[in-house]
C-alpha cells in the first residue's frame, strides 16, 4: 500500500475512533443514572437533564458548526471539537453537583455537534475515489452504530470496578488518539469562496432545532396531551419556517436549499431517519425487556446486545460487495426487508420466549442496519457540493437527529399506550408510569400474579411498537423500490463521487 493510501486509512481509523466515542457517550450514561442519583443527590428532573442537555446541545449547534467549518476550515474546527469533547468529558467525570454535570454535558453536546458533520465532511478530501469513499462511509457510520450497544456493556463493567466518573474518562484516551491523528493525517479543507457566516440563520436554526427537540422530549415525559409541549413545538415549527424563509433571501445562506431539490439527498436522508426508528425502537425496549422480564442486571443487559453488533458488522461487510454489483436501490430494498423481518420476529416475543428469540431478531436487525445505513448515507452524500460539504453534512445529521428524537417520542407513546391498556385494573400510578416502576411495586408486594401481569403488559406494548417499526420498514422498502430511480443508460442511482473538496 502506498504511503499516501496508508495515511488516508489511518486517518479514517482515527475518525472512526472519534465517532465510536460519540456513539458510546449516547448510551453509556444510562447504566450510571442510579449511581448518579445517590452520589450527586439528583432528583428525577436532574437525571432527565443529564441526557437531555447533551441531546439538546447536539441538535441546536450542528448546523452552525457545519457552516463554520466550511468558512474557517473543517480540520481546524474538527480538531477543536475533539479537544473540547475531551475537556468536557473530564469536567463531567469530576462534577460535584447535578448543575455542574448538566452544564458539562451541554458542552459535550456542542463538541459532538461539530465532530459529527465535520468528520463526515472531510471524507471526500481523504477519499476522492467514489468506491473508496463509499467504503470509508460504511466504516464511519458503522463505528457510530457499534458504539450505541457497546455503551451499556462498557459502562456496566466500569461501574462494577470504578466510580461513576470513569464512564466519562473513557472518552479521554480515545479523543487524544483521534485528535493527534487528525492533526497529523487529515488535510485542511474549506470552501473556495470565503462567504460570511449567516448569523441570523444560525440563531434561527439553533432555536428551531432546540425547541423541536425539547418539545418531543417533553412529550415523551408528559404525554401527548401536554399543551406546553405542543406550544413549544408550534413555536419551534414557526421559527424553522422563518429560518427557511430567511434562507431563500439571505445573500449567503447557512444551508443550500437546492439540496431539497435533489431526490438522492432527500431520499437518502429520509431512509436514514426511517432506519433510526427501527434502531431506536430496539434500544428503547430491549434493555427494559432484559432487566424487567428476564431479570438481568445492567451489564448483563448490555452483553446480551452483542449479537446485534455481530449482525451489524456482517451487514456492513456485505454492503461493500453488493453496492457495486447491484446498486443502491436493490441494496436499500433488501436492507429494509431484512429490518422488517427482524422487527416482525421481535413482535412475536412472549413473556416466556427467553433470550434465544431476542438474540436472533436483534442479529437480523443489526444486519439490516449494516445494509441500509451506509447505502443511504452514500446516496445523500453524492449531491453535497464541495463549497458546502460541512453545512450539507450537518443538515443531514441534524435531520437525522430530529427524526430520531421524534421517533423515540412516537414509539414510546405507542408502547406506553399498549402497556397501560393491557394492565387492566393495575392501570394506576406508579405501575402505569412504566415497566420499571410496575416490577418494583410487584416485587415489593411479593405478588407473583401482579408481576406476571405487569410483565405481560410490557411485552404486549413492545410487540405493538415493533409491529409499527416493521410496517415502517416495509413501507421504506416499497419507497426505495419506487423512488430510487435508474439513471440514464440503466445505471443505478447509487452513491457517486461528490465534487472534490478544495484542500488547503
UniProtKB/TrEMBL annotation:
Signal peptide, first to last residue: none
Entries under InterPro entries matching the protein: EmrB-like, MFS, MFS_dom, MFS_trans_sf
CC per GO annotation: plasma membrane
Xref: Pfam families: MFS_1
TM annotation in the entry: 12-34, 46-65, 77-96, 102-127, 139-159, 165-187, 199-217, 229-246, 266-286, 292-314, 326-348, 360-386, 464-484
Entry keywords, A to Z: Cell membrane, Membrane, Transmembrane, Transmembrane helix, Transport
GO MF annotation terms: transmembrane transporter activity
Localization in the cell: Cell membrane
Membrane topology annotation: Multi-pass membrane protein
Domain Major facilitator superfamily (MFS) profile residues, every copy: 11-488
Protein name (record): EmrB/QacA subfamily drug resistance transporter
Species annotation: Nocardia alba
